[in-house]
Amino acid sequence: xxxxxxxxxxxxxxxxxxxxxxxxxxxxxxxxxxxxxxxxxxxxxxxxxxxxxxxxxxxxxxxxxxxxxxxxxxxxxxxxxxxxxxxxxxxxxxxxxxxxxxxxxxxxxxxxxxxxxxxxxxxxxxxxxxxxxxxxxxxxxxxxxxxxxxxxxxxxxxxxxxxxxxxxxxxxxxxxxxxxxxxxxxxxxxxxxxxxxxxxxxxxxxxxxxxxxxxxxxxxxxxxxxxxxxxxxxxxxxxxxxxxxxxxxxxxxxxxxxxxxxxxxxxxxxxxxxxxxxxxxxxxxxxxxxxxxxxxxxxxxxxxxxxxxxxxxxxxxxxxxxxxxxxxxxxxxxxxxxxxxxxxxxxxxxxxxxxxxxxxxxxxxxxxxxxxxxxxxxxxxxxxxxxxxxxxxxxxxxxxxxxxxxxxxxxxxxxxxxxxxxxxxxxxxxxxxxxxxxxxxxxxxxxxxxxxxxxxxxxxxxxxxxxxxxxxxxxxxxxxxxxxxxxxxxxxxxxxxxxxxxxxxxxxxxxxxxxxxxxxxxxxxxxxxxxxxxxxxxxxxxxxxxxxxxxxxxxxxxxxxxxxxxxxxxxxxxxxxxxxxxxxxxxxxxxxxxxxxxxxxxxxxxxxxxxxxxxxxxxxxxxxxxxxxxxxxxxxxxxxxxxxxxxxxxxxxxxxxxxxxxxxxxxxxxxxxxxxxxxxxxxxxxxxxxxxxxxxxxxxxxxxxxxxxxxxxxxxxxxxxxxxxxx
Length: 727
Hints:
Elements: H1 18-24, H2 31-40, H3 47-59, H4 76-82, E1 93-94, H5 97-112, H6 130-141, H7 150-158, H8 169-173, H9 179-193, H10 199-211, E2 219-220, H11 224-253, H12 259-289, H13 294-309, E3 317-318, E4 321-322, H14 323-328, H15 334-343, H16 356-359, H17 373-384, H18 422-430, H19 439-455, H20 466-483, H21 495-504, H22 506-509, H23 528-541, H24 551-561, H25 572-575, H26 586-595, H27 602-615, H28 619-630, H29 636-644, H30 651-670, H31 672-714
Parallel strand pairs: 1-2
Antiparallel strand pairs: 3-4
């Protein structure tokens, strides 16, 4: 078990078991399927090889463009000059409303998922890396772009389009959207699964994104809503590019001997974005310059309806075949179907508006309700055209052939995660991107802790109301504050005891915020607003793009000030550090495990989060800060939590409001009984923090009492600095 010292080392590669490969091969290997699978949850281990080999296939045979050769120097200005996109040569197009609508439909997968490749850039393994901290600021400043952008939503609504649900299978199956756009969006999502493995490519990809114009640029006579959206985008991206460029400079400086290789990978990522962008831009221009004909639109409509219609028309015949036979054919023969329909008695060639076909879809007709108003307009438009049935119509929704990018065979010998102790499991959970086979073991750990928490927890009230919840939180807070007494004499615990305790807490606090590291996966679900609140807490824990405010960085500096040398958290030497007691990994292993399943365990995660945020308030932290100061130990990490976790508007308030919001949604959609059931799950999650830490709490007390005896028996002082362990 070996991990390089840098979390973004050059040659990181994930390991996948044969079993995970077998599951991955069950997916249809196309961009639409990958898009839907990744945007839905991201909790399935098989998604990792599915996404990894998709990225590899898109990079296969690609070489950097001539414009991205080695820069003259490795400073920011030279890198900026080397990574600059050329201006588009496409002239503006005056788009009609119909063309604008079509363009907006096409670009949705891409715009809704940018810049999701950065949403996991700052995870536990990388939470102290300056480049990751900087790029997390780029993601935060983007406002998640179109996904939550009111300007983009206004643009869609003004054009007469609905706000899409990108998580739905119907969205991914929508043949109206060209597959090139799903390929691009799937690439953006796939890169987000591997922020460490493809970090150089992500750096270049991000710079190209910052430098590119929107796919919607170049539409002359822009409606006001489009102008507003594009202007907001132009205002955001210029400030992001210098951050990305500086991150590249600092990253290259860390690998003196590997700069050329890294630069090639960075420019490969730059070109990867550029080529996919240009591919989509060309397709969009083609659609604008060669508008869809009435026959193409009608054929596309029938293609979309064919699957749902199959099985209902076996007695209706068209040119010797039942309609079920027509609809069951794969791919659907749009050209042949339209031609046959136009030759049939369903069409009145002299008076198309009076065609029997149209009457089928009117009120009291046998197919009333099958077509929307827009579908009926499409049908009328086709019937009103000359020689509508004989136009050369390509098969609608032309898509590139599926690519079998997964290897036919393969698989690594992965560790037996189910037999691991918490120390070892901690290492693999920190590095879950590299070892996704650990996820089933992580789920089992979460389920075990929650079962135990359920056995030993008693609800404060069975029937949830907001008032009862608020009263309960207020009671807990008042009790804590009333119990606080300022330090009036020498602390009971010695300085050495505190130093030892600080060392034992390192596995947990160097992973501070880890339980929420994947809350951003909720962005496209019904709980997007709740996910945003949890992500806000995580951003605060990791410094909001500012290294000095990053909690793990603050704690690492505290450790350094006390001469406690520890390896990087992602290094296997960290979990094998002899100074840690075994139970020091109980809580952080549980927190890391539940972080991988923000959708499956959302109510439990909400309760756990509340327990963590409330633990930073009251007498314990207030007194702890005073006692640390007494012994000359920097109390900054304690004071930061006391301040930021406040119940008025801080993390404790956000945690409580997220629970209220969640239970409101459950009550609205599922009723009061379901709301109380989810409240029980939330409270079980709340109690799980104490359950996970029970052994650690006892071990701390025992070791404090027995420590002098152990020191004498070992022949050395327990608190001396250990050599050979680099931070």
